[in-house]
Every structure is written in structure tokens, then in C-alpha cells.
């Protein structure tokens, strides 16, 4: 087989890139290790920035998002039982959209199917070859047979555990990492959300997050230890841990129901530099991870795809490699700012340190955030998403 761009991974990064390239007449094949149903079953991001919304529109898959997504003009931060609101729209003119990653993935898959663009699910043993030459190849196994794709470029969109980043020769890539000693235990429940806007909660018992997917579906998280066993968390235990962290109004409004999904996500900051090696380009979680506290992971995958799709379009339409050559530096400039914001808000809202000095600094910083318009503005411009 032959294609222009072979894309590894059918998460949001791979599917969005595939759709944007397809609409510009650039041939691509997506290889995904899992089945489509498995990919759709992963409950992850929920909050998307204007830049991501614009890209989904450009990809021609934004209609359902605009119909069903919830527009948020502010965000709540609850400190030891007292609520504060950051008026994002008033401060920045921008809003956020609450629309689940599962729905985005479904819309992208439907768009790809309608365009009859090829995706190979259950592709096993995907491997990249000759990435430093002019004719890279991707091999894989599917339906019990071995296959090979010869291409111009490979886009590694296969997430943190994928093979793309690991295929770059050691020494050609530098990684930066911080692992936090905690995770998030999340549940999805068909109950009305406890707040109208997302609420981040700092509490002596630990962090909590009240989020949502629709007016009848809640997504809640509590900080937990990394060693936590999900089977040790029946729903009742989750609600017992979650409820006391809330303010009084939320505790009164809270409706408890059975969970329809429950999972634990570790918190990690990670960046691989550069995001290109020869003809292999990394995008999304394959190149970087942020702790979920800033709601930046999916949005960063989208901004990478924006830079990368422009670069491929420029290459094929104008025969210029300038944007491909600048891809890594441009993407990383935005990535590092989102890394900084995600790290900062994580350390600000979680019970991480036992040192009373650190706790006092957390409270002083939060007080400053609520008292100072300049501090609120700095928070807001990062939270709604920095420009591309
Ligand atoms: P992935 O979604 O990981 O997709 C990679 C794909 O590649 C997968 O389908 C995988 O199966 C496939 N793959 C892997 N290895 C191979 C292989 N060898 N061969 C072929 N295919 C392979 N982000 C936000 O912006 N906002 C939020 O509110 C938010 N909340 C989150 C909450 C939680 C609990 C978690 C865990 C994450 C959250 N994120 C959030 C982060 C967001 O989900 C990720 O950043 C996003 O999924 C990255 O997309 P991706 O396409 O780069 O990677
Ligand atoms: C979510 O709705 O899953 C969500 C919202 C905000 C975050 C992380 C996750 O920061």
C-alpha cells in the first residue's frame, strides 16, 4: 500500500489530523491498535477550548457539538467550603465548551466513515521503518496477515504508551518528566450535575472536581493515592469521600446515583523534545502529557494537529517545507505554557505537601487569585486556551 501520510493512533489527534488532511486532498491511512468500540469506551476529557472547537468545525464534524455541547462562561473554585467564580468570558471574551471526548471521537469517526477514508482497527505490531530516509514505511499485522504501507510522512498520534516516540533513536530525543504522588478517581453518573459550571475543589481531605457531560450526566473526581485499587471503591465509598469536600450549597444539591463508569488516572507532566525525527512527527499525548487539572491534554493534541496539518498542507500545496521544519518549535512553545499552567494549578489545588509552609503558600496564592484582577486574568487567559 502507498499513502502520503500514515497516521498511527485513532484517538482525537490522529482522527482530527486525518480529517483535516483528507479535506485538503492529502491521502492518509490511520492504524489503530484497538477496536473502534474500545476507543469509544474510554471516558476522558470534557472541556474544550475555542481553538479546538474551530478545528472540529474546519474538519466538518462540529454540528452535534454545537447542538449538544454546553457553553461555559466561567469556572468555579471552591476553597475549604467557600465558592469563588472566575468570570472567563468577562475577562477574556472567550468561553469554553463542555462536550465529551467520547462524543468528539464518535463525530470524527462518523466523519471519516462518510468520507470513506481508510482506518485499520485492531492493527497489531505496528512498527515504523526508515524514518530518517525519504521513503519511510509502516508495517503491521491485521486479519492474520502482514501489511506494509510506504508513505511520505508518518504522524505518531499513538498516545503516551504508543510506539512512535519509542522508535526514535535514543539520544535524538530528550524527555522531561514530573510524576505526582497521586491520581484521580473519576465516576460518570446519570444524575444532574451539582453545579452549572465546572467546580474545582480544594479541601483538607484532598482535591475534588465537579464536572459534567450534559444537564443529566455528571462527571466527578476525587484525589486518590496512586496505589488505589479501583475494586476497593464501590459507589458508596466514592460518594462518602466526595460529598464532604463540597460547599454547603453543593452538598444540598448533590443527587447520588449509580456510576456508569469508574476509573483511576495517574497525574503526570511529561514532554519529549523535539517532536520530529526525520519523517516522523509526534502529536498529542505521544509527545506530551499534562495532569488533567488544567483540562489541557485534548486541547494540546488539537493545537499540535493545527500546526502539523498546516505544515502538511503547505508542503503539498506550495512545495515548501518551512512549516514542517518549524513544527516542533512552534508546537512546543505552546505545549510548555500549558505544561506550566497545568503543573501550577495541580500544585495549587491538591493536598500534596504535608509541610504547613506549603499549605500557607497555597492559600496565599489562591487568595491573590480571587483578590487581584490581574491574577484572575492570567488564570483566565490560560484556562480558556492561549492563542495558536
Ligand atoms: P490518545 O487519546 O491516547 O489516543 C492514542 C491512540 O493511539 C489510542 O486510540 C491508542 O489505542 C492508539 N495506540 C496506542 N499505541 C498504538 C500502537 N502501537 N499502534 C496503533 N495504535 C496505537 N484533556 C483536555 O483537554 N480536557 C479535559 O477535560 C481532560 N480531561 C481528562 C480526564 C482524564 C481522566 C484523562 C485520563 C485525560 C483527560 N484529558 C483531558 C487528556 C486527554 O484525554 C488526552 O490528552 C487525549 O486523549 C490525547 O489524545 P491523543 O489522540 O493524543 O491520544
Ligand atoms: C472532565 O469533565 O472530565 C474534566 C473537566 C475538567 C478537567 C478535567 C476533566 O480539568
Characterization of the model:
With 388 residues, this protein is α+β, with helices and mostly antiparallel strands. Helices cover 37% and strands 28% of the residues. The protein has an 8-stranded mixed sheet, sandwiched between helices. Strands 8-2-1-12-19-18 form a 6-stranded mixed sheet, covered by helices on one side. Strand 10 and strand 11 form a beta hairpin. Helix 1 packs parallel to helix 9 and helix 11 packs across helix 12. The longest helix is centred in the last third of the chain and has 28 residues. The chain is globular. The model has no long low-confidence stretch (mean pLDDT 97). The protein binds flavin-adenine dinucleotide and P-hydroxybenzoic acid. The site of P-hydroxybenzoic acid has 10 residues, from strand 15.
Give a quick summary of the entry:
This protein is an alpha+beta fold and 388 residues long. The protein is built from twelve helices and 20 strands. The strands form four sheets. The chain has an eight-stranded mixed sheet with strand order 6-5-14-15-16-13-17-20, with helices on both faces.
Amino acid at each position: 500500500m502507498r499513502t502520503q501520510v500514515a497516521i498511527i493512533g485513532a484517538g482525537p489527534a490522529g482522527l482530527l489530523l486525518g480529517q483535516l488532511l483528507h479535506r485538503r486532498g492529502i491521502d492518509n491511512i490511520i492504524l489503530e491498535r484497538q477496536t473502534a468500540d474500545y476507543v469509544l469506551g474510554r471516558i476522558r476529557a470534557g472541556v474544550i477550548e475555542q481553538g479546538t472547537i474551530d478545528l472540529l468545525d474546519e474538519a466538518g464534524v462540529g454540528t452535534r457539538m454545537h447542538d449538544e455541547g454546553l457553553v461555559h462562561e466561567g469556572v468555579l473554585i471552591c476553597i475549604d467550603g467557600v465558592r469563588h467564580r472566575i468570570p472567563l468570558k468577562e475577562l477574556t471574551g472567550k468561553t469554553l465548551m463542555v462536550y465529551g471526548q467520547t462524543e468528539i471521537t464518535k463525530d470524527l469517526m462518523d466523519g471519516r466513515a462518510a468520507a470513506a477514508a481508510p482506518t485499520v482497527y485492531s492493527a497489531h505490531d505496528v512498527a515504523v521503518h526508515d524514518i530518517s530516509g525519504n521513503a519511510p514505511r509502516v508495517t503491521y499485522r491485521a486479519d492474520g496477515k502482514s501489511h506494509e504501507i510506504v508513505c511520505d510522512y508518518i504522524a505518531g498520534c499513538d498516545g503516551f504508551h504508543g510506539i512512535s516516540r519509542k522508535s526514535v533513536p535514543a539520544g535524538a530525543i530528550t524527555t522531561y518528566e514530573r510524576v505526582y504522588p497521586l491520581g484521580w478517581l473519576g465516576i460518570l453518573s446519570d444524575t444532574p450535575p451539582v453545579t452549572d459550571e465546572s467546580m474545582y475543589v480544594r479541601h483538607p481531605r484532598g482535591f475534588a472536581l465537579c464536572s459534567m457531560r450534559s444537564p443529566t450526566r455528571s462527571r466527578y473526581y476525587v484525589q486518590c493515592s496512586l496505589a488505589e485499587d479501583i475494586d476497593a471503591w464501590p459507589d458508596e465509598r466514592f460518594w462518602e469521600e466526595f460529598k464532604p469536600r463540597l460547599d454547603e450549597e453543593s452538598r444540598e444539591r448533590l443527587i447520588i446515583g449509580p456510576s456508569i463508569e469508574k476509573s483511576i488516572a495517574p497525574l503526570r507532566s511529561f514532554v519529549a523534545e523535539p517532536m520530529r525525527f526525520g519523517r516522523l512527527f509526534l502529536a498529542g499525548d505521544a509527545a506530551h502529557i499534562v495532569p488533567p487539572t488544567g483540562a489541557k491534554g485534548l486541547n494540546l493534541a488539537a493545537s499540535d494537529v493545527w500546526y502539523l496539518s498546516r505544515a502538511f498542507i503547505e508542503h503539498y500545496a506550495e512545495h515548501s517545507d518551512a512549516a514542517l521544519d518549524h513544527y516542533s518549535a512552534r508546537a512546543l512553545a505552546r505545549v510548555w505554557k500549558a505544561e506550566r499552567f497545568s503543573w501550577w494549578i495541580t500544585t495549587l489545588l491538591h493536598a500534596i505537601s504535608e509541610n504547613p509552609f506549603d499549605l500557607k503558600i497555597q492559600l496565599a496564592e489562591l487568595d491573590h487569585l480571587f483578590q487581584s484582577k490581574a491574577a484572575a486574568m492570567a488564570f483566565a487567559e490560560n484556562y480558556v486556551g492561549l492563542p495558536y
